[in-house]
Every structure is written in C-alpha cells, then in structure tokens.
C-alpha cells in the first residue's frame, strides 16, 4: 500500500504505510486497550460507542463517530483511568434476512461475513477497543439472555400480549413499523398500507412514564438539550382532567333505529374552558363513533372512515389540511352548564390518545376553531386575553386572561379557573383530574425470522407457558434458507414445523412455540450491560462487574437514536434496578451526538452519487490523516462536509509534527533547565488541551497542537534541538496527537526513545508557573527615582510584588543599608519606597 503522501519530497520520511503495517501487532501483543489490564484499583471510565449494524463495510459516518469516541477513551487512558472501551454488533435485523432471501442463504452467513469485514476495518482504523469483550446480539450466548430478560419482564407483568391494529402491507404480507410507512404506502413495495388486527407482544413501558421523565434531572447538562427535549415530547405528559358528558337516547323505544342513552368521557388540558365547549368530536375510527352514530348518519360515517384509513397520525393532525368530519346525529350535555352541544366525528381527533374524544373549544384551540369555521359551528370566547375575538380574527387565543361567559368561573385567571373547574366536575361526580401520556406501550414482536425468538410456548390446556430457564436459548432453526424466510402473513418461523411443535413444559401435551421474534431494539436495550461480563454463562451480567463499569460515563452515537433506542435502554435499566440487578437508574451519564458526514451540502447517498468510500480515502491519505481531518473539521456535534475537509493538508501537518520528534536531540538534562518560552508554550498547550477535551471541543485541541508544532519547529531550527525544552515539547505533541492519530503518535514516541505504547503514557503534568500569560514590567522607585525594573505576572499580588522589589539588586544597592519608612505598592506596575 503506498500513499499519496509518500510521493511528496516534503514528507518522504513520514511513511503512513510503514506505520500502519507495524503498530497494530505491537498493540495487540501488549493488550494496550484491554480494560483492567493494569492495577484494577484505578477509577474506571467507560466509553461506549453505539454499536454498529453490520450492513456492509464501515462508512464515513462510522469513521466520524468512532473517531470521536476514541478521543474520549484515549484521553482518559492518559489521565490514568481504568478505561473500558468495548465493541459489539447489533447483528439481528431485516437487511440480513432480505439478503438471505435474495441469495438463497441463511441470514447468519451475510451477517457474520459483514461483521468480519467491519472488524478488520475497525482494527485498521486503530480504535482503542477492548476486543476481549466483543459481543454480537445474534450469538445464541447473547440472545439466551435477551430471552431470559424477556421472561423476567413477563413475570413482572411488563410483557403481555394483546390484539391491536397494526400497519399491514397486503402485498408483502407483513407488519410494518410506523417508520416503514411512507405517505400511507409500504416503504419497500409502494402498496397502500392498511390496518390489521393482530395478536402482538408489548412491553409495558407506560408504567415507567413518570420515572422516565423525572430521572431526566440526572442528565441535565450532560446530554444534549435537544435530546432531552425529544425524550420529553415523546413521553408527552399532559396534566388535565377527564370530563364525562351524557348523550341522551335518540329514536323511539322498540324502534330498530333507536340508540340508547350513553356517556362519553373527554380528556382536556383546559378544563377552565368547559363553558366554551360548543361541540364534541370523537375519533372517527373509534369504537365510540360507531356506538354513538344515529342510524341516519351511519352510511356517511362508514364512508368517511374508509376515506381516512391510510392517513398517518401526522397527516391527520396537520394544521395545513382542511378539516373534515361527519355529524353523528347526537347531542352531548355539558355537565356544568346543562347546554346541549352536537357530537361530530373527525380524523383530527386520534382514537388512541387520551380517551379518543374531545370537548371542542373553538375560541381557544386552533384546530377546533378551524373545524367550527368549516362547519359553521358556534364560537364562544371564555377567556378574555385582551386579544381580538377569535370568532372575528380566525385566530384562537391560548394565553392567560380573565374568565368570561363561564358562570361560577367568571373573573378567575387561567390557573385558578383550571383548579376551580376541576373541583366543580369532581364535586358533581362528572370528572376528575388526570395525567395523560403520549407514550404508548412498546410493540416488540415482529413476524420475521432474524431476531431473538420469543421464549413462550402456547398450550391449549396451560395457555402461555414460558420456556424454562434451563432450556434457553430457544435457538433459531438453521435449516431455513432463501424463500423459506420470506414473510407470508405470519412469521417464517411458523413453517419450521419441527421447530414449532413441542411438548408443553407443564402438562407434556402437544404445544406450539411462539413464532414471533423480538424487535432488535430489545437487543440493544441492554448490550452495554453485557460488556461488564460478556462471557458470563450463568446470568446476563455479574452484579459486581456491572456496578463496577456502569453506568456508562460517555455514550457516543447518532442523533437518529435520540428517541427510541435511548428511551428503551433507559426503561430496561429502570426495570433492572427494580429487580435489584443494577444499582443505578440511568444507563448513560453523558451523551455525545456526533454530526453527520455530508458531501457538497447533502447527506451521502447512492442516488445522489455523492458517496465517498472510506477505505479509498484511508488508502489514499492514511488512517491518521482521515481521522484527524474528520475531527478537525468542526465541533463534534456539527455536521462535517467532506468537500471542505482536507486530509492531504492534515497529512502534511502530521509529517511536520513527526519530524519534530525526529529532529530533537535526546538529552539527559532536566526539563526544568530548558528554555522558558518554549516550556511555557508546551505547558499552556497541554493545559488548554485537557480543558478542551473535557468540554468536548476536540477540534480546538488540534488547533492548539498545530500552534505548538509551529513553535517547536522554529525552536529547533533556531539551533535548540538539544535544549531539554525541545524534547519536552515533542513529547507533549506526541501525546496530544495520540488522541486522534495513533500511528503517528506511536511512531513519534519511539523516535523519542520510549517504549510502546504511547496510549499508556501519562498525560504531561502541567507546571502552573509556566502558564502565566505575558509578563509586564513593574517599576520600583526610591524617593521618586526609578531604581529597578521587574518582569512580573500581571496577576501578581501586592505583597508578592513588594517582596520582589525589596529583594531586588537595584533596591538593595540604592538603599545601601538604610531602613525603610514606607512602601507604597500599586500592583502590578509600581512600587514606591520611602527610606528613613
Ligand atoms: C379542550 C381544550 C380547550 C383543549 C383548549 C385545548 C385547548 P396535549 O397537550 O397534547 O395532551 N385532545 C385530547 N385528546 C385528543 C385526541 N385523542 N386527539 C386530538 N386531540 C385531543 O393536548 C390535549 C388537548 O388536545 C386536549 O385539551 C384536547 O383539547 C385535545 F382551549 O380540550 B383540549
């Protein structure tokens, strides 16, 4: 392998190919990156990169993310921590299955081949990973414990099965996740998606909604603010009230068309506006709508329901869409005013949020106002905010104000009116205060092959029977291939009859295995815990180990996982805490989201043809140059545009830094005897770099290293190669660079006469006295005449300056033994001495 750099005379001795060939074996032999490899008493620091999906070789996005995590891991190694920086693969999932169908193979073949490719690239990329803890979620030794955990959740009532409508692609015969439905159509084949009722497994994450919200206090300032916000919005806690409206019967008794009396409960966050409710809306696709609808309106409702079937929740609630709906031919009675209001069905009310029914207050809710205007329904202002009447302006007012048109609530402000209205309905038994969440239980079952089988057996006599622990893992059959893996309306596992048909562990009678597999988010909800004791075959992880290494000190990964993965991992951690298996409630103390790697302003993609191949870049410029260029391009959280990145220039810089190490002359002298200005530059750079790494400004660390290289180069060229300050500078440069450019740094370390590995070299100690900015000149006067000039720190204290002045040669000489009557100090610039 030759690199472009080697062809330039300027850098001919800096040979990336030689370094890349030489060092990995040395690092392996020394077990440099293995956690606990020295004395195990040191404080731990755990850095976890979100583990990759083995979709092919590593790409530019991986290159950036893993370079960032590596800076953190390497920094804490230099700082003497016992660092755990593990690696694994999220290796179950759909692409492997699709590839297997296409190639008439088993998904494991594609998966493990890709893992090997990525593992090789990780090594070449010189990440400080502890390979001894490597794991793969598709290994039976791993998913055995995924199944074991599922069982514990099941025993605690946190895993359950229920019939529910799911997105269904009639062509592919498969369930689709919401993200796989694009504009109402199947992402893969474009067929319009419908809803189908299926028996599905759920985790009861809603039981943990409050804790998932409240524990975010622990993460404040340590996680990106926008991620915390997304988590909060996803959980969506709304405080409000349930209010029940009576719906009088319609039609004559004994008349086939009659509908009996009913009641409908609405969820509202604004009980204060109860007197402004001028109509009620129920979700058109809800059972309630069908129960309520008057016979004369039934056909219209059914037609309307058909028309909204393929709309997503987002479309339904979009404020841009014209409001649509059908009157149900019924009225509801306002429980506090006794007023009769019409009941409508519409798509802007969702069936599975709140109670699926709302009281509409058009004056103070824009969606209700748009609906009222579309169907000419009354608009009544009940909060006077001082703004124009919404009935006139067409803009609902949502702020605070004074209650009007509201009987007993008149004159109150919003907060007091919310409390008073809640009390009012509670006292009448027609409502109560309540908290509602947007969060839904986690649908975890998939009718797919390449996932962890759900460890449940269905028996006609005993019902759902968990597979006994000592029979785990329930391994996937190995004999299905190609087309046999294609979805057919039920899980492909159903066709493996040998596998499916078992005897019931309780009664011994004939029974069937559950044929669903788990969502891969289940696998990734606990892998970081498994890193603590990855080879444990008695339990998912050992208690002492998990509490030693976790929670993760620094988690690194893409913002695309800001919601689901993090929420699920947090949920698992809390359940395991409740089970007494871990002693912490949050899995990731700090989170870093790296930006995306773009090219010419756009995400790299095959269709745009702007993709950049990582391995080609590595061949061309060398690993270190690519890594450094990537980190230098922007602050870690910002996007990097590869078009603006210059690995070639970075290669030149690295060569220049490398030559500093080559050109210094070894000396036995103590660094303290070295040139002060050079030393000061070194110590300042090291001091700043530590602060910059800890505050996540990795790109600026590189800028500081560049400055130091310039100063050191000049110092050497000025004939100071054997000054101990030159050696000190070169060592510091090597350690700063080792955060980003491990090959170059290791080579420099060797040139400087040290044993490998630089990764274990302690961070240079900073001499505070060398950090003093510039000195300024203080003038010492005796009887008004300048007798001495002193170079001092601008921060010098009065007493220090006085002491320096009195001890100075000039002052001693001019005082010549006389006593002192008075000293006036104006630090840092002037000392005036009045002799006796
Ligand atoms: C009356 C009202 C008056 C409302 C007002 C708002 C403003 P969040 O905060 O998101 O929880 N709502 C309730 N259930 C709904 C559903 N299934 N589909 C669509 N909208 C629904 O929103 C709660 C508010 O959204 C509730 O409070 C309800 O409208 C509406 F001036 O009730 B409100």
Describe this structure in words.
This protein is α+β, with helices and mostly antiparallel strands and 836 residues long. It is 36% helix and 20% strand. It contains 27 helices and 34 strands. A four-stranded parallel sheet has the order 2-1-26-27, with helices on one face. Strand 33 and strand 34 form a beta hairpin. The radius of gyration is 35 Å and the shape is globular. The structure holds ligand ANZ. Ligand ANZ binds at residues 238, 267-270, 273, 349-350, 353-354, 356, 358-359, 361, 364-365, 436.
Reconstruct the topology from this structure:
Layout: H1 16-30, E1 44-49, H2 60-78, E2 82-84, E3 86-89, H3 94-103, H4 107-124, E4 130-136, H5 140-155, E5 159-169, E6 174-176, E7 181-182, E8 185-186, E9 194-203, H6 209-214, H7 225-235, E10 237-247, E11 262-268, E12 279-283, H8 287-292, H9 298-307, H10 313-317, E13 325-333, E14 340-346, E15 357-360, H11 366-375, E16 383-384, H12 390-393, E17 402-403, H13 414-427, E18 431-437, E19 442-443, E20 445-446, E21 456-459, E22 463-466, H14 497-500, E23 501-503, E24 510-513, E25 517-518, H15 520-523, H16 527-530, H17 543-549, E26 554-558, H18 564-578, E27 591-594, E28 597-599, E29 602-603, H19 614-621, H20 623-632, E30 640-641, H21 647-663, H22 676-694, H23 698-720, H24 724-738, H25 742-751, E31 776-782, E32 785-792, H26 798-807, H27 809-815, E33 820-826, E34 830-835
Parallel strand pairs: 1-2, 1-26, 3-4, 12-14, 26-27, 28-30, 31-34
Antiparallel strand pairs: 5-6, 5-9, 7-8, 9-19, 10-11, 10-18, 12-15, 13-14, 16-17, 20-25, 21-22, 21-24, 23-24, 28-29, 31-32, 33-34
Helix pairs in contact: 1-25, 2-20, 3-4, 19-20, 20-21, 21-23, 21-24, 21-25, 22-23, 22-24, 23-24, 24-25
Bound molecules: ligand ANZ.
Ligand ANZ binds at residues 238, 267-270, 273, 349-350, 353-354, 356, 358-359, 361, 364-365, 436.
């Amino acid at each position: 392998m030759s690199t472009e750099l080697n062809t330039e005379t300027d850098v001919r001795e800096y040979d990336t190919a030689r370094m890349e060939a030489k060092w990995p074996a040395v690092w392996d032999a020394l077990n440099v990156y293995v956690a606990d490899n020295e004395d195990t008493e040191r404080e731990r620091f755990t850095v976890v990169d979100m583990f990759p999906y083995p979709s092919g070789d590593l790409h530019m996005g991986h290159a950036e993310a893993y370079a960032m995590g590596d800076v953190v891991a390497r920094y804490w190694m230099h700082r003497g921590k016992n660092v755990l920086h593990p690696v694994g693969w999220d290796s179950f999932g759909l692409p492997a299955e699709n590839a297997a169908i296409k190639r008439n193979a088993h998904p494991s073949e594609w998966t493990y081949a890709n893992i090997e490719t990525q593992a090789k690239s990780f090594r070449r990329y010189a990440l400080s990973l502890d390979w001894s803890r490597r794991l793969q979620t598709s290994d039976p030794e791993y998913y055995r414990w995924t199944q074991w955990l599922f069982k514990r959740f099941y025993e605690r009532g946190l895993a359950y099965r229920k019939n529910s409508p799911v997105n269904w692609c009639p062509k592919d015969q498969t369930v689709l996740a919401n993200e796989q439905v694009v504009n109402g159509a199947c992402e893969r084949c474009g067929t319009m998606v419908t809803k189908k009722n299926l028996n599905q497994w759920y985790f009861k994450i809603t039981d943990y909604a409050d804790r998932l919200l409240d524990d975010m206090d622990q993460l404040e300032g340590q996680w990106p603010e926008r991620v915390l916000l997304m988590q909060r919005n996803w959980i969506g806690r709304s405080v409000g009230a349930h209010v029940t409206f009576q719906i009088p019967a319609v039609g004559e008794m004994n008349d086939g068309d009659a509908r009996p009396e009913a009641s409908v409960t609405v969820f509202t966050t604004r009980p204060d506006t109860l007197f402004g409710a001028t109509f009620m809306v129920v979700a058109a696709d809800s059972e309630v709508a069908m129960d309520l609808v008057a016979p004369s309106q039934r056909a219209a409702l059914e037609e309307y329901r058909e028309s909204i079937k393929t709309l997503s929740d987002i479309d339904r609630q979009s404020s841009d869409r014209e409001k649509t709906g059908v009157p149900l031919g019924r009225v509801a009675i306002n429980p506090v005013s006794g007023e009769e209001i019409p009941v409508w069905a519409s798509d802007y009310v969702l069936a599975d949020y709140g109670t699926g029914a709302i009281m509409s207050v058009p004056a103070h809710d824009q969606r209700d106002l748009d609906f009222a205007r579309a169907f000419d329904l009354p608009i009544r202002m009940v909060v006077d905010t001082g703004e124009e009447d919404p009935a006139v302006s067409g803009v609902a007012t949502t702020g605070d104000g004074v209650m009007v048109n509201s009987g007993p609530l008149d004159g109150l402000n919003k907060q007091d009116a919310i409390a008073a209205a809640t009390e009012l309905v509670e006292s009448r038994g027609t409502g109560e205060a309540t908290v509602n969440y947007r969060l839904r239980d986690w649908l975890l079952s998939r009718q797919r092959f390449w996932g962890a089988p759900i460890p449940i057996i269905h028996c006609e006599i005993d019902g759902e029977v968990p597979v006994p622990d000592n029979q785990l893992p329930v391994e996937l059959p190995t004999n299905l291939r190609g087309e046999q893996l294609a979805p057919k309306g039920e899980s492909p596992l159903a066709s493996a009859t040998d596998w499916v048909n078992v005897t019931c562990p309780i009664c011994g009678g004939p029974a069937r295995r559950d044929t669903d597999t788990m969502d891969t988010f289940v696998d990734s909800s606990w892998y970081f815990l498994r890193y603590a004791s990855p080879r444990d075959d008695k339990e998912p992880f050992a208690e002492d180990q998990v509490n030693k290494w976790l929670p993760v000190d620094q988690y690194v990964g893409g913002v695309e996982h800001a919601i689901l993965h993090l929420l699920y991992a947090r949920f698992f951690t809390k359940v395991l805490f409740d089970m007494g298996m871990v002693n912490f409630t949050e899995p990731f103390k700090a989170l870093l989201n790296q930006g995306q790697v773009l090219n010419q302003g756009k995400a790299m993609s095959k269709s745009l043809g702007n993709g950049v191949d990582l391995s080609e870049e590595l061949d061309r410029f060398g690993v270190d140059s690519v890594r450094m260029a990537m980190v230098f391009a922007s602050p870690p959280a910002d996007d990097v545009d590869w078009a603006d990145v210059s690995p070639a220039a970075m290669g030149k810089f690295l060569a220049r830094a490398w030559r500093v190490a080559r050109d210094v002359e070894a000396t036995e002298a103590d660094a303290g005897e070295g040139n002060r200005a050079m030393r000061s530059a070194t110590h300042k750079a090291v001091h700043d770099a530590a602060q910059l790494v800890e505050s996540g400004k990795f790109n600026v660390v590189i800028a500081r290293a560049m400055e130091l290289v310039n100063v050191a180069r000049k110092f050497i060229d000025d004939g100071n190669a054997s000054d101990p300050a030159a050696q000190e500078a070169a060592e510091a440069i090597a350690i700063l660079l080792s955060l980003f450019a491990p090959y170059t740094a290791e080579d420099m370390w060797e040139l400087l006469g040290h044993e490998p590995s630089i990764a274990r070299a302690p961070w240079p100690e900073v001499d505070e006295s060398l950090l003093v900015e510039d000195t300024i000149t203080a003038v010492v006067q005796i009887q008004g005449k300048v007798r001495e000039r002193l170079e001092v720190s601008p921060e010098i204290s009065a007493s220090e300056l006085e002491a320096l002045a009195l001890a100075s040669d000039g002052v001693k000489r001019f005082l010549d033994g006389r006593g002192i009557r008075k000293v006036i100090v104006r630090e840092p610039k002037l000392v005036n001495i009045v002799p006796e």
